[in-house]
Amino acid sequence: MEENIIGRNREKQQLRDIYESDRSEFLAIYGRRRVGKTFLIRQFFENSIVFQTSGMANTGMKEQIKHFYQDICRYDKRSETRTKQPKDWQDVFFLLNDYIESLPEGRKVIFLDELPWMDTPGSQFISALEAFWNGWMSNRNDIVLIVCGSATSWMMDNLIRNHGGLYGRLTRRIFLNPFTLGEVEIFLTKKGFSLSRYEIAEYYMIMGGIPYYLQFLNPRYSLTQNIDQLLFQPNGELYDEFSMLYAALFRNSGDYIKVVEALSKKGYGMTRKEISEATNLKSGSVLSQTLSNLEDCGFIRKYENFDHPSQNSIYQLVDFFTLFYFRFLSQSSTHHIMHWEAIHKNGQYYAWAGFSFELLALQHIDQIKDALRISGVFSNNYSWRNEKAQIDLIINREDNTINICEMKFNESQYTIDGDYANRLKNKIDTFKTYSKLKNKSVQLTMVTTYGIVRNSHSNIIQNEVTLNDFFTELRYQ
Fold this sequence. Notes:
Elements lengths: L8 H11 L5 E6 L6 H8 L4 E6 L6 H15 L13 H13 L6 E6 L1 H4 L6 H12 L6 E7 L2 H9 L11 E4 L5 H10 L6 H11 L3 H4 L8 H10 L8 H9 L3 H12 L5 E2 H8 L5 H12 L3 E4 L10 E4 L2 H10 L2 H4 L4 H4 L3 H16 L2 H7 L7 E7 L4 E8 L3 E8 L9 H17 L6 E8 L14 E4 H4 L7
Parallel strand pairs: 1-4, 1-5, 2-3, 3-4, 11-12, 12-13
Antiparallel strand pairs: 6-8, 7-8, 9-10, 10-11
Helix pairs in contact: 3-4, 4-6, 9-16, 9-19, 12-13
């Protein structure tokens, strides 16, 4: 039921539009593993689904067809259906079409989950799906065909960017993002947690906004106890998650792991050439596809330098769980003995937390703009660096203003002392000198957990954004 869905306001409106459309709709919903794709569709269309099935992992064509056919029989109670044993995918979709045609008038939702698993080698699954949609379903006006999959590379190559029989056939697509901090707060509150927003941010910087991970958190345990139990203990529910994550998402997952591992060692990112050299992957079509699929799935971001937007784009790892894994879990010699309780709040923790907070800000740029009251102003986001200075977030606005954002993670209000104030001034002066800035005013914006202490140096700041602002529901959707 829709009331069971936390947040997802934009996606729910998209699904309403699809259901209320006066034509047949073909929707692909995709996103990283565990983000809640299946839950969203099943809950939203609970009373409208006339058929649903799911592909099975690591099985062949015969088993996939048998499972699909058994689900058809579960929905279609007519005796003649049970006498038509399908031999291939064409026969399977013929039976599905025959069942759909037997149904009374009204909107009909067909949900095919984990579609990539059905496409086993040599099975001709894609051509059968093309025939099902192009030959039968698209000619009607009462069908909502929803296909879903976590294997993002397959979804992109075969549906989103497909140039065969399904080219241009998708009528809608939804990339399901992780929860925002505000949605995580609602989720954890419903689970019985009573946490500060600082603690919620810590959970987010470890797990991201992944509902599947968050569901294992126990309100009877502290933050450190939960992380120890789930990630550091060999019997923890998420102990082996990383080893399964990329294999489930990407074919040839080894190349993808090489890329994210290299990026995990260079927090602020690498150029394509640097990635190629670090991973020994040739800078050709394979690397292009790997980077593109990682970006499409939200594991990395591609960003541009402010004054050279088309040259030397930088790729940066932005998936919180992957970053945490390589910082604290990947070395087998420490995986079994290192406990979060022991390293929490030490130097290694603060180095990780400071960088992760910057990523947290980057993933909540819309909330930052909303807090600055500039959501209605067209703007582009950049980073900027040269040999003298580095700025992680620049908001370049159409109203002749630039926000230079400084992110600081702190357990209390942040104090700007004289030395830091001078560094900020030098950073702004360097940016103005080298960035080819043209007739725009610059506003220094501090993005912190609890704000800044007012003192003789704090007037260098024109705007403040705090962690609380990350939790706000956007006024502009």
